[in-house]
Prior knowledge:
Largest sheet of chain B: 6 strands, mixed
Number of strands of chain A: 11
Radius of gyration of chain A: 13 Å
Structural class of chain A: mainly beta
Structural class of chain B: mainly beta
Order of helices and strands of chain B: EEEEEEEEEEEE
Radius of gyration of chain B: 13 Å
Helix content of chain B: under 10%
Distance between the termini of chain A: 37 Å
Number of helices of chain B: 0
Shape of chain A: globular
Number of strands of chain B: 12
Largest interface: A-B, 26 and 22 residues
Strand content of chain A: over 45%
Shape of chain B: globular
Oligomer: heterodimer
Amino acid sequence: EAGVTQFPSHSVIEKGQTVTLRCDPISGHDNLYWYRRVMGKEIKFLLHFVKESKQDESGMPNNRFLAERTGGTYSTLKVQPAELEDSGVYFCASSQDARSATEAFFGQGTRLTVV
Amino acid sequence: AQKITQTQPGMFVQEKEAVTLDCTYDTSDQSYGLFWYKQPSSGEMIFLIYQGSYDEQNATEGRYSLNFQKARKSANLVISASQLGDSAMYFCAMDNYGQNFVFGPGTRLSVLP
């Protein structure tokens, strides 16, 4: 069974440009999460989809970030326009049932560098 | 490639008791870091504790301690005096310093009153 896949694995863009990150969750997983690791040990929650609906987007830093999950399958996270402080590793995770899941699966992350 | 294994999908513990959550890892790197995160139902990831591969002493942070056994490639999390608020998913993760950051599948801990 394929795990959570994220594309691209690395992206280097200039300040002001647009980047779109993609996450393909495990088939059948209704819950999809986006996180960002900026530096060190902290991993910041961005948002949570249940199927195609945004369950919680309280972690989205500002309106330069737009997440979508059309059809409840894969999700995209667009940053437009990118700023230097957006650099970091963006992780996606999926699980079947957020309340009772005993496993959640993380992708390998997308390393975004804004220069 | 790095890999994290957490063999306990779900764990139960009585309030005020201690509990150990298992984590084993696989890497060919000599330098790496090991992390534990707590994920409550809100979905946020709360950093708990960190252990560097060259740290000789086990890391401790309040009620959390990491039982690091390098030769066995294990990094178990010990929570002492469990509280009801400790009920959550717990993820073990490994970082080889900038190249890869890998999570385990998680363990759901339920603290019973």
